[in-house]
Task: structure prediction
Amino acid sequence: MNFKLRKIIKKIPKAMKNPRRSIALLLRYISPKDSEIYRIGKWSYGKIPRLPITEVLPGIEKVDITLIRAYDRVIDTSLDIQEIMALSAIVRFTNSKNILEIGTYNGNTALNLAVNSVADALVTTVDLPPDWNGQFELKVHPSHLNVTEKAEVGSQYKNTKYSKKIMQIFSDSAKLDWSKLPIPFDIVFIDGCHSYEYVKKDTQNAMTYLKSGSILIWHDYGFVKDVSKVVDETAKKIKVRAIRGTRLAVGFIE
Result:
């Protein structure tokens, strides 16, 4: 029997003794005052147990980070504040020098990766070309269309003092020639097209061009079914952990 179900069954006799209090407690979960609970409640895909980041990367609690434009983000599109904190902390904790991001969007993530990386680090970020013809290299379900307006791509890191640490690449990630990138990478962060074929292709390429001891990170684990499927498949090949309170999954390359 499922562990959670056993806990519920054990509490039934106690609930029967004080039905009014039990109903009141139930209503707290049915009609919460903060809609954020519904957003997090949608993180229901994936098989990997969620762990505190301090268990995924022991010692990371000693790391300090700096966030730029921390609240200038779109819920369910951008990384949320907890996620950008976690990602920035991982970069600083690992002293990563060569970082790749797939999916630039407005550049907030690239900006904060640059802020929290070592002084001579390079953040390479990939997004579709400004003159993109609308044709994807691989199959994409309509629900996964998340193309950024060309004027918005990288807008947050442009004209900042950190832009010199960021190299923008324009390409469909499935057509990207990784051998021409500044390989191997210390960290690859996958947050591009969320269709299964794309996430799988990006993951396969990342695992080829990550150095030993490096880290592969996926966004939207638990939230997007296709992403979660690829991550679960990858967890059969390498060690992967999901960070509690976020949609981040972290894979460790040996």
